[in-house]
Amino acid sequence: MSFKSLVTFLALTTTASAALIRRVTCPDGNVVTNGACCALFPVLTDIQANLFKGGICGEDAHSALRIAFHDAIGFSLTKNVGGGADGSIVVFGDTELAFHANGGIDDIVANQKPFIAAHNLSAGDFIQFASAVGVSNCIGAPRLDFFLGRPPPLAPAADLTVPEPFDSVTSILARFKDAGFEPIEAVALLSSHSIAAADQVDPTIPGTPFDSTPGTFDTQFFIETLLKGTAFPGTGRNPGEVMSPLQGEMRLLSDFSLARDSRTACFWQAAVGNEDAVKFAFKFEMAKLSVLGQDTSKLIDCSDVIPVPKPFTGTAHLPAGASLSDVEVSCNLFPFPTLTADPGPATSVAPV
């Protein structure tokens, strides 16, 4: 299956499920499909103003997306390792925050706990709601779905359920498979690195982005991961880090390897410049991730509370100072797109 096939499937699914739906007007004037969703608007107002600093696609938005993944991926189709997207990373933080893969998540939990306490939401609901709202602040991002009604978690997730940047491709794909995701779906979920940054890989340079446009959901991440590495952004080679092509940019070993592995390289290359396909694939896979371990028949679709992100108006490009000869093409099924480089001096990336 290609990204275009995945998007076609999504479009057919959306069309098939579309129908005239009765609307409900909330006391504050907002209109939703289910009255239970009205209670989310005060939460939305609060976190946009006080967690996301006025609706910015910054460090707190990136962190909200990170904790949503780390909480949800603690799930297995074959083993009893956790309840998935249930908020256990907050409720059982004494256990889960000690896992190596969750380094730095304690700061995110500390930032989110006051909001969870202030609003009548389960930890699982708040984590996924904040993630969807945070992503909506990023230009070009999809409008993520949100489902309300997760019960409190019953137990912590198991250790070693979150893939790490120094893991092998085989290990990473096996972990995703065990959670219900095929390789193309894993690549789609990694679109999140378009609006993400590393805090723990090199602690001396927290907030180091994975691409040159961390405030925009685009395909620059897929392009820049394929460029030849030239230097490390901080202290040098750390576990899970390889050389980056741009000053101030972090490149994870896992991303580098997935971009070049025969099982995922063509999916990776197909994403380059294909913003709409990547956006819809990410939306679809995040909807799946956000309800792992949940009985969806008991959840309420409150997706209409999530703000609509601003559209992406740019084009895929090489960063200034790079050329097509710097691209390490790993898929020969179709040619790498012809891209032009930004003018000016070599691109450098500021921390978020």
Automatic annotation (TrEMBL):
Ca(2+) 2 binds at residues 194, 211, 213, 218. Disulfide bonds join 26-38, 37-302, 57-138, 266-331. It comes from the Eukaryota. Residues 1-18 form the signal peptide. InterPro entries: Ccp1-like, Haem_peroxidase, Haem_peroxidase_sf, Ligninase, Ligninase_C, Peroxidases_AS, Peroxidases_heam-ligand_BS. GO terms for molecular function: heme binding; metal ion binding; peroxidase activity. Its EC number is 1.11.1.-. CDD domains: ligninase. Keywords: Calcium, Disulfide bond, Glycoprotein, Heme, Iron, Metal-binding, Oxidoreductase, Peroxidase, Signal. Its cofactor is heme b; Ca(2+). The keyword Lipid biosynthesis does not apply. Pfam families: peroxidase, Peroxidase_ext. Belongs to the peroxidase family. Ligninase subfamily. This is Peroxidase. It comes from Multifurca ochricompacta.
